[in-house]
Predict the structure.
Amino acid sequence: MVKRGAFIVIEGLDRSGKSTQTSLLRANLEAAGIPTELIKFPDRTTAIGQMIDSYLKSQSDLDDHVIHLLFSANRWELASTIEKLLTSGTTVICDRYAFSGIAFSASKGLPYEWCRAPDVSLPAPDLALFLQITPEAAKARGGYGEERYEREEMQRSVGEIFHRIGAEIASEGVRWVAVDAGHERDQVEEDIWMFVKPLAQGVEGPIRRLWPDKIRV
């Protein structure tokens, strides 16, 4: 069977080191000769992404339902691109994905099921890595508090919902792995590579969908 590219998602609380580790992972894959594409959500370059960027910087206000749907729409803008890349044999790394959208919106009080619904049938990752760090440790890192959601109480709630999501998608066949992001950068990089390396040469089988049991025909 012809292998396709692996789809890897890196999630975590704010200031957990996601951007650093996704860049390091891309470099490691490329050094191993693996075609790799890094996508960051939200993608702030699109029209929808610019609205999200303005909101996150507290330059505009939007209803919680509206901003949640904009985040989801931003992911759907790139869904077909992700699938084409995977089919062509390119490994795709996502810095945040649908799981962040659910965790942050549900933490604001929106119903969990409602938050999940817009992302049903998006491409499912082959591996989701959750960078685990305490809100206290994240707060001690540089730049904390510059964006709307970077508050300790909010981050704690987000972390709890991430764990719920992890258990849920693991039961549906998506591998969810918690990585201790409180370690030194090089150790976290090494831990991530240990989980990614088995997928580096490609994945057999079709691209799966998120929450397939929720798809209504």
Observations:
- The mean pLDDT is 92.
- The two ends are 29 Å apart (CA to CA).
- The longest helix spans residues 64-87.
- Strands lie at 7-12, 36-40, 91-95, 127-132, 175-180.
